[in-house]
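pasting for the record
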Amino acid sequence: MTKQRLGRGLDILLPQTETDDDSLVSQLPISEIDPNLSQPRKAFDEEKLSQLAESIRQKGLLQPILVVKEGQRYRIVAGERRYRACRIAGLHTIPCIIREFDEAQQLEASLIENIQRENLNPIEEAQAIQSLINHFGYTQEDAARKLQKSRPAIANQLRLLSLPETIQAMVVSGDLSAGHARVLAGVSPESRQLELAHLCVLNAFPVRRLEQLAKKPPRSSHGSKPLSGELAGFKDSLREAVSVKTEIVGNESKGKIVFSYSSNDELEHLYEVFSKITKSV
């Protein structure tokens, strides 16, 4: 049976085979395999890992991981998500392809594998692409060829790294999608980016609605200027603390904070929050 092939970027580094040749695959003790500290993926979805682990329990691991030998142990080059799922599944051995890579090849294989398998969140993917460019002196065209993407797609992905850290964190957490992030990357100034980002999270606006808002000049119902980045962040912190719709009108010198509730439960929650505050004063 022919298995799904990897993208051509990885074909440069991995065996040109359907992996039916058992001589290419070794069953290694999972206790002798170490994660790659340079792994571009930083966040692993525990629920999806559990789902993959259950699949592995039922069908086994269909795609070997890629490792290099270091002394008496092995280090993962590509496939850490599968490795983690195998540990959850309770496997004692794991199918591996052992290759001899220098550090540059290890990094390139790890970055490309993660990007092509779409296991990264949008910010991690942009960071991985930027790492490819920085470490290997690639142009955006080079990176596009390696990853089998268009150059504009690479450029749009890299633009996400220009977003404020607060918005990047919203993308990583899943509060904003990559589509939201791409729209916000084309907005200026930063205070307007933050204002729109918080509005999207608060109101669950789809990307199309954000595109409409981004085309309008910033304004509020009170005719005030957009919030500064610091105040926008403060508003978001307040909203998270009280768990109801929160608005700030004004600036650092003068203004007002408005909490809005839409049910008796939200009103009761507000009462509990502020009761705790007044008792602690």
